Amino acid sequence: MESRPKKKRANLRDVAKAAGVSVATVSRVLNSPKAVSEETRLRVKEVIDMLHFVPSAAARAINSGRTRVIGALVPTLDNAIFSRFLAALEKHLAMHGLSLVVATTSNDPEVETEKARGLVDIGVEALIVSGITHSPEFDKLIEQTRLPVIATSYFEENYHLPTVGYDNASASRIALDFLLASGHQKIAVVHGPVKNNDRTQARLSGLKAAKLAHSLQMFETDISIQGGSTAIQNLLRAKTSFTAILCFSDVLAMGVLFELQRQQINVPEEVSLIGIDDLPSSPYTFPAITTVHLPVARMGEVAAKSIVRWLDSQTVPDPYLLPAELIVRHSTRKLA
Q1: Looking at residue 64, what is its pLDDT?
Q2: pTM passes above 0.85
Q3: What mean pLDDT, rounded, does the chain reach?
Q4: Which residues contact 239 (CB under 8 A, 6 or more apart)?
Q5: Which of 186, 150, 154 is nearest to 169 (CA)?
């Protein structure tokens, strides 16, 4: 049986010929319809529908000078925090006719730079990045391309790029102060890798001002449920006493909770547990996890609106601080 030949996809010239106008006129109908008479616009639109013509992204970029594509660089897609952020970012960019392309960096500045170059090569109009720790090569790339870039998940008024995020030091201090106010003196802290992670570094700095900072037991691990579980195994091997555990993310808190339950250690009767992030699943663990809420969806919305304003007005946006809020649930208790 002979295969049917594929129909040729209509192009700009086909539309112009069928409508009896120039290619430039078709381009104006697509990109600046107000510059064309109503009669001509309707005739060209009718031909476009008849030929099932769909302008290619490359053609639109050539004609308009814009790709309408934004790039986002995030450490991972495994953590629901970044997934929620990207969902909100994409939603609000789409409201302004912008598309999102995402690349992951594994928290490696060199990988981030290479991925940024790749996004620049495909013509992104702006970049959204995580944190304020970037390689000199990344900064040089941004300086050369003059690309609008917004740093998220971190608030820093004096950073050379506009930031949209939280006071990470304040977030960890909110959690610690709550435990201290609840009567806890022996506190273990479980956090992710410090290298190349300014958010973790800032959260650690937030604990240093506390009176009991010198007595806090610190455990570094991978940011995963397995990482939280491993941290507890190491904590129990150390045979040091503790009444509360502060985790720098709810993902770690879940791993900690599951391992404590496996070890038949009751939360919060024997050990109180608090996280930072407030994942959608945190209210549904047993017990529900007390945490410091970080408004990641709001961060995506603000980042999107900031980029849109920057592209439309060529005005660099101001840094934007998002509030961190304590959410008390059932994984913590006051000591008698």
Answers
A1: 57
A2: no
A3: 91
A4: none
A5: 154
Query: How do strand 217-220 and strand 320-321 relate by DSSP bridges?
Result: unpaired
What's the rounded Cα separation, in Å, for the pair 251 and 261?
16
State the average pLDDT over residues 11-29. 84
Phi, psi of 168 (to 5 degrees): -65, -35
- 70 with 124: CB under 8 angstroms? yes
Rounded to whole angstroms, how far apart are CA atoms 198 and 59? 41
Q: Is omega for the bond preceding 287 within 30 degrees of 0, making it cis?
A: yes
Cβ contact 115:103 at 8 Å: yes
Model pLDDT for residues 165-198, shown as the tens digit of each residue? 999 999 999 999 999 999 999 999 999 999 999 9
Handedness of CA 164, 106, 254, 82 (dihedral sign): positive
Coil vs helix vs strand at 60: helix
Judged on CB neighbours under 10 Å (0-12, 13-18, 19+), 82 is buried
